[in-house]
Every structure is written in structure tokens, then in C-alpha cells.
């Protein structure tokens, strides 16, 4: 039953966004990163090569749409500035657009915080999600092109989003950059961006086939992210953010258990801050609000993160202190059932808030129901 629903959701997504029909494709980087992993999971579950082809086609569409300038932009071609031939070989060299409804804010115009959410550009944490999707593609297919594209994206992201506060001083990150990565659109730093960067770059760094020169760039980037993480706090009241903490905690636990990469103090902090965040969420009324007041994709991000909890418990079991903290998180696992039960009911997927974010809601519900490919190391 669960597998059939996931298959139905992803088939619906493929058709409605122009992946399997002739309508104009509608690509959005965050959603598509999860979708690639979902298609790979369906291929493993069903044995149907059709889903691997959908994953390949989706990667190709993302690169040829979000790696190029918008149709309503006076600029054209690859956002990297590369020639047509070189851009096709290196589609992530200049990063990837978010895929927002409106074009980015013009240079020199004042920011409108409300409007900025609907305007295009580049988000760092979307780029790390796409790096993960490309790494999963490389693992599943053995095609190192995906790994090379992930590495080129990582280098572009670090070069453009990370900057020193003063010469030779501590580093920070911009929240949002322009489509061509030449100017910041939002100066403030995303709460979890350094953490996403460190974990995502580590995942890429340990992949087989990374060239030595790229590995050196990744090592330098990891050092920058690690320094930013050293002075950070992770507690959040955002369900999606809590899910992200649990996701990153799982990847850190995997790095320690299987690769000998020790970030124990950070992992302790993540588990403790995730617990504090979950306590706060349960004390609020957020998950008791009417469906019309709720954003499914944010709750489903939490549900996906909660899927990681039993995996974390198993990975950290040899360390008594980590095991105790991880075990404390298991009391919150029933939240996942509440969230999935609500949003698997068709009547709730007819609500205004679901339909307004139809693509991302659909894909993240599918990921929550079948998270193995996304959560895989």
C-alpha cells in the first residue's frame, strides 16, 4: 500500500511538472533533489528501469533549465558564462538557479523581504541538496559524470557564498546570491547553512573518484564550514529545520562509524539541540492547527528527519553518551506517524495550502513514506 502510494505520487509529479509529458517543464531545485532520490528508490523497490531513466531525465532537465538563464531574462545561455558546448559538459560550473516564480531583484533596487521569497537566485542549502542527489546518482549508476558535476557545484558554491568578515578574519555566508553568483541578494547567513555545507562537502569528499585538486578545494571548504560550526547554535522552532538537524546528525554518525571522521562534539550538540527543538515543538500548538493553516512540506521535512532517528541510535550505540542522547529522541518518533497519517488522506491534499505548494508537498510526502534512498550514505 505504501509503495503503491509513493509510486502514484511520483508518477503524478513527473507528469504534472513536464518530465513525462510535452507540457512546459516546471523545475525547482529543492523539490527535484528529493525527487531524484525518490526515483532511485522506486527503481530499487520495483526493479523497473523506467524509474532510473526518470532520474536521469530529471537531472538533465534541471541542468538545462536551472543551469541556464530564465526565458524572461535579457541574458541567455549558461549562467556560468561558458559556451554552449562547455556549458553542456559542465552544467553546474556556475551553480543552479532556485527556480522561483519571479526573476531576481535587479541590481541597485531595494530588497522587499516579502517579495524576495518569490524571486529567483541561488540558495546554498539547495545546492547542497542537489550535490547529494548527484552523489546518489553516481553511486547507483557508476557514472562518474554525476560526481564531477557535484564537485564543480561544490566549488562554485563555496567560492561564491563564503566570505571573510574582514581580511584574514572569520568567515560567514550569504543567504541568497544572484543567478550569476556575482552579488548577494540577502546578506544574512542561513541558520544551518554552515552545517549543511560541512556535512555535504564531507559526503562528497569521501566519494571514490574525486580528483586530488578537487579534494584539496573540498578540504579547504570543510575547514571554513567547521570553523563557522564551532561558534553556532542549532535550536530551531521550524519543523523543516529540525528535520534537517536530524538528517545532518545521521550523516555525521555515518561518517564517524564508517569513515572514521570524528566530529563527536558537534554530533553531541546536534542531538541535544534537536531534542530541545522537538521539546519546543511539542509544547507549541503548531501540529494541532487546522490543515488550512499548515505547510505540509515543512512538517514532512520533520517526518523525514524522524525516519533517521533509529538509524542514528544504531550507529552511535558504542558511545554511551551519544547513545543516551539519541535514545531520548525516540520518544518523538510518533510525530512522524501523525504527520504522515494526516497528509496521506486525500481530503487534506485538496486543501488550499497543499495545492499552493503541490510539487514540493507531493515529493516530500513520497520521501517520508519511502526515505531509504534519500537517507542512504
Poorly predicted spans? none
- Biggest beta sheet summary: 3 strands, antiparallel
Total of DSSP H or I helical runs spanning 4+ residues: 18
Fraction of helical residues:
55-70%
Structural class: mainly alpha
* E-strand count: 5
Cα separation of the termini: 26 Å
Summarize the structure in short:
This protein is mainly alpha-helical and 377 residues long.
Please explain how this structure is put together:
- The chain has 377 residues and is mainly alpha-helical.
- It has a domain at 233-357.
- Helices cover 61% and strands 3% of the residues.
- The strands form two sheets. Strands 1-4-5 form a three-stranded antiparallel sheet. The chain has a two-stranded antiparallel ribbon with strand order 2-3.
- α2 runs parallel beside α6.
- The longest helix has 21 residues, at 239-259.
Summarize the SSE layout with pairings.
Layout (H helix, E strand, L loop, with lengths): L1 H15 L12 H18 L2 H18 L17 H6 L23 H4 L5 E2 H18 L2 H18 E3 L6 E3 L2 E2 L6 E3 L6 H13 L6 H19 L8 H21 L4 H20 L12 H12 L1 H7 L4 H10 L4 H10 L8 H5 L1 H12 L2 H4 L2
Antiparallel strand pairs: 1-4, 2-3, 4-5
Helix pairs in contact: 1-2, 1-17, 2-3, 2-6, 2-17, 6-7, 6-8, 7-9, 8-9, 8-10, 10-11, 10-12, 10-13, 11-14, 12-15, 12-17, 13-14
Relevant terms:
two-stranded antiparallel ribbon; globular; 377 residues
Amino acid at each position: 500500500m505504501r509503495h503503491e502510494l509513493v509510486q502514484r505520487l511520483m508518477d503524478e509529479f513527473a507528469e504534472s511538472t513536464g518530465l513525462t509529458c510535452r507540457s512546459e517543464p516546471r523545475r525547482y531545485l529543492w523539490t527535484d533533489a528529493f525527487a531524484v532520490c525518490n526515483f532511485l528508490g522506486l527503481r530499487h523497490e520495483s526493479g523497473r528501469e523506467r524509474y532510473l531513466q526518470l532520474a536521469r531525465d530529471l537531472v538533465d532537465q534541471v541542468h538545462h533549465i536551472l543551469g541556464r538563464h530564465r526565458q524572461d531574462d535579457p541574458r541567455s545561455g549558461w549562467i556560468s558564462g561558458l559556451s554552449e558546448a562547455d556549458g553542456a559538459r559542465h552544467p553546474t560550473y556556475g551553480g543552479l538557479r532556485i527556480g522561483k516564480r519571479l526573476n531576481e531583484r535587479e541590481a541597485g533596487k531595494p530588497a522587499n523581504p516579502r517579495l524576495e521569497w518569490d524571486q529567483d537566485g541561488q540558495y546554498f542549502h539547495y545546492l547542497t541538496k542537489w550535490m547529494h542527489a548527484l552523489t546518489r546518482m553516481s553511486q547507483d549508476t557508476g557514472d562518474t559524470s554525476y560526481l564531477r558535476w557535484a564537485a564543480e557545484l561544490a566549488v562554485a558554491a563555496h567560492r561564491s557564498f563564503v566570505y571573510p568578515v574582514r581580511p584574514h578574519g572569520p568567515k560567514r555566508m550569504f543567504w541568497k546570491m544572484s543567478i550569476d553568483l556575482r552579488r548577494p541578494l540577502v546578506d544574512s547567513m542561513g541558520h544551518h547553512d554552515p552545517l549543511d555545507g560541512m556535512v555535504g562537502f564531507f559526503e562528497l569528499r569521501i566519494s571514490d573518484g574525486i580528483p586530488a585538486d578537487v579534494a584539496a578545494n573540498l578540504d579547504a571548504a570543510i575547514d571554513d564550514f567547521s570553523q563557522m560550526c564551532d561558534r553556532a547554535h542549532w535550536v530551531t522552532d521550524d519543523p523543516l529545520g529540525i528535520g534537517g538537524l536530524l538528517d545532518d546528525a545521521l550523516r555525521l554518525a555515518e561518517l564517524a562509524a564508517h569513515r572514521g571522521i570524528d566530529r563527536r562534539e558537534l554530533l553531541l550538540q546536534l542531538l541535544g539541540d534537536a531534542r530541545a527543538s522537538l521539546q519546543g515543538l511539542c509544547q507549541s500548538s503548531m501540529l494541532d492547527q487546522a490543515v488550512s493553516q499548515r505547510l505540509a512540506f515543512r512538517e514532512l521535512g520533520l517526518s523525514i528527519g524522524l525516519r533517521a532517528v533509529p538509524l542514528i541510535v544504531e550507529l552511535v550505540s558504542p558511545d554511551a553518551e551519544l547513545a543516551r542522547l539519541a535514545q531520548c529522541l525516540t520518544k518523538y518518533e510518533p510525530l512522524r506517524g501523525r504527520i504522515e497519517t494526516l497528509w496521506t488522506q486525500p481530503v487534506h491534499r485538496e486543501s488550499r495550502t497543499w495545492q499552493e505548494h503541490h510539487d514540493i508537498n507531493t515529493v516530500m510526502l513520497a520521501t517520508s513514506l519511502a526515505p531509504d534512498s534519500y537517507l542512504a550514505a
